[in-house]
Specification:
CATH class of the largest domain: Mainly Alpha
Structural class: mainly alpha
Number of strands: 0
Number of domains: 2
Radius of gyration: 19 Å
Order of helices and strands: HHHHHHHHHHHHHH
Shape: globular
Number of helices: 14
Helix content: over 70%
C-alpha cells in the first residue's frame, strides 16, 4: 500500500491550496455552500494532479532508474508494474473528470486544460529552456482560475499575476535545487541542464522574486482592491511575503533540501510567515463584510 501512496504523491496536494484562493478573497469563506464547492474543486485537482504524477513516472521510468533519488520510485524500482500504473492513471483521470463535470462544465474545461498542459510539459516542454518554467507557472495559475469558476466568482487580474510570478520563482528554484543535487551529472538526466547553470538561474530567481514582490504591492494598493475591500491593509502582509521569498532564495542556493515542497513545508519560518500573511489577508477581506 505504501508504494501506491508514494506513486500518487499526496504530499504534493498542498500545491492545490491555490484552488482555494478565490474562496478566501471573494468573502465567502464562511459560507457552507461555497466552502463545499471549493473543497470539491480542491479534491478534483488532487485527483487530476495525482493522475499526472503517475503519467510522469510512467513516461520517465527508464530515466528514473539511473537517477540517484528517483530510482526508488515505485515504477522505476519495479514495485508497481506499468499496466497497473496505467490503470491507476486512467482511473484517477476518469473520477476527476466526472466529479469536475458535476461541479461545473467550465471547471471541467480548466481541469482538462491543466491535464493538457502537463502532458505537453512531460512529453516536450520540460526539455525547453525557460518554457519549462513558464509551463509550470501556467499550471499554478489554472488552479485559482478553476477555483473561481467552481464558485462562480470573478478573480482579480492582479491576483493571477501574483500567482504567476510566484510560480515562476518556485519553478526556477526547483531547477536550481536539482542542479545542485545532481552536481556534474545534471545534463545526463535532463537536457535543459546543458544550458541552465547557477550563474544564469540565480539572476532569474532574483528577477522573479522582485516581480512577485512588486506585483503583490501593486495588487494590495490597486484601485480594484481598495474598492472591493475598502482598505489597502493587504499591504501589511508585504514583510511576510518578502521574508518567505528571500528565505526560499537562500534555502535553494544552499541545496540542502530535495525540492521546493520540502523547503516550504519543513521550515518553521516559512510556515509561521505564511500563517501571519493569511491572518492579514483574512482580516483585510472580512473586516469589510458584515
Amino acid at each position: 500500500m505504501q508504494q501506491w501512496f508514494q506513486l500518487i504523491r499526496p504530499a504534493h496536494w498542498v500545491k492545490n491550496v491555490f484552488v482555494l484562493i478565490p474562496l478566501v478573497f471573494s468573502g465567502h469563506l464562511w459560507s457552507w455552500k461555497f466552502f463545499g464547492l471549493s473543497v470539491g474543486a480542491f479534491a478534483c485537482f488532487c485527483l487530476i494532479s495525482s493522475s499526472v504524477y503517475v503519467f510522469n513516472d510512467i513516461k520517465d521510468s527508464e530515466a528514473d532508474r539511473n537517477h540517484p533519488k528517483k530510482s526508488s520510485r515505485p515504477i522505476a524500482s519495479g514495485l508497481i508494474s506499468l499496466p497497473k500504473a496505467w490503470f491507476l492513471c486512467i482511473f484517477l483521470l476518469f473520477v476527476s473528470a466526472l466529479a469536475s463535470y458535476l461541479i461545473s462544465k467550465w471547471f471541467l474545461l480548466i481541469i482538462l486544460a491543466y491535464l493538457a498542459n502537463n502532458i505537453v510539459y512531460t512529453l516536450i516542454l520540460k526539455n525547453k529552456v525557460v518554457i519549462d518554467i513558464i509551463s509550470i507557472a501556467i499550471g499554478f495559475v489554472l488552479r485559482p482560475v478553476s477555483g473561481a469558476l467552481a464558485i462562480n466568482v470573478t478573480i482579480s487580474d492582479w491576483l493571477l499575476i501574483c500567482v504567476f510570478c510566484l510560480a515562476l520563482f518556485l519553478g526556477t528554484g526547483k531547477r536550481r535545487v536539482e542542479l545542485v543535487q545532481l552536481a556534474g551529472v545534471a545534463s545526463q538526466h535532463r537536457r535543459v541542464y546543458r544550458i541552465y547553470t547557477a550563474s544564469n538561474l540565480d539572476p532569474m530567481l532574483a528577477a522573479s522574486a522582485s516581480m512577485t514582490t512588486l506585483a503583490y504591492m501593486l495588487y494590495a494598493t490597486s484601485s480594484q482592491t481598495l474598492l472591493k475591500f475598502g482598505s489597502n491593509h493587504l499591504l501589511y502582509g508585504t514583510p511576510f511575503v518578502v521574508y518567505t521569498l528571500f528565505r526560499y532564495f537562500i534555502a535553494v542556493q544552499e541545496g540542502k533540501k530535495s525540492g521546493p515542497l520540502e523547503i516550504l513545508m519543513q521550515d518553521a519560518g516559512f510556515i509561521g510567515a505564511g500563517f501571519c500573511w493569511l491572518l492579514v489577508a483574512i482580516w483585510t477581506v472580512y473586516h469589510s463584510y458584515p
